[in-house]
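Structure (tokenized):
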């Protein structure tokens, strides 16, 4: 369900399935709240023990969520923000590609039972290419910082 309040538009999982091409288990955000002006969004991802990535870690005993999947989840929140901003526009027509993440810093691990909070800022778009930045928090503490996310529609 997509709901709109005076400050945000919220997307739950069914609404995200209509917005993004991703499907479980590849869909890595549970819900998204977009600021009224479309300048930013907050995405949420609950880490479950049943995630496919944990099936491969039994031998090592490590249950930390892979850093690459944190960036993928943040990237999906960024893509959803861009698609929300450009709804019906030829700017985001075509297939979206996650082109690049720069200045990525991992500050701590996350584990099953944690809920990630992705804060995304839309910086600009130029001819089918979007530039965003963001960070991921856990209980108000930074987990990951991404200085630049670049996505393209082709």
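Design, position by position:
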């Amino acid at each position: 369900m997509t709901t709109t309040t005076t400050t945000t538009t919220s997307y739950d999982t069914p609404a995200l399935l209509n917005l993004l091409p991703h499907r479980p288990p590849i869909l890595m955000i549970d819900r998204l709240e977009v600021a009224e002006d479309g300048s930013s969004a907050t995405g949420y991802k609950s880490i479950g023990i049943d995630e496919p990535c944990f099936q491969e870690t039994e031998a090592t005993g490590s249950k930390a969520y892979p850093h690459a999947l944190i960036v993928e989840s943040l990237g999906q929140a960024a893509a959803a923000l861009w698609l929300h901003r450009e709804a019906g526009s030829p700017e985001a027509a075509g297939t979206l590609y996650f082109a690049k993440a720069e200045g990525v810093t991992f500050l701590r691990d996350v584990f099953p039972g944690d809920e990630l909070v992705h804060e995304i800022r839309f910086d600009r778009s130029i001819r089918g290419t979007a530039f965003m930045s963001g960070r991921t928090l856990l209980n108000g503490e930074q987990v990951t910082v991404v200085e630049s996310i670049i996505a393209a529609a082709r």
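Reviewer-requested clarification: The longest strand covers residues 141-153. The chain has a mean pLDDT of 90.
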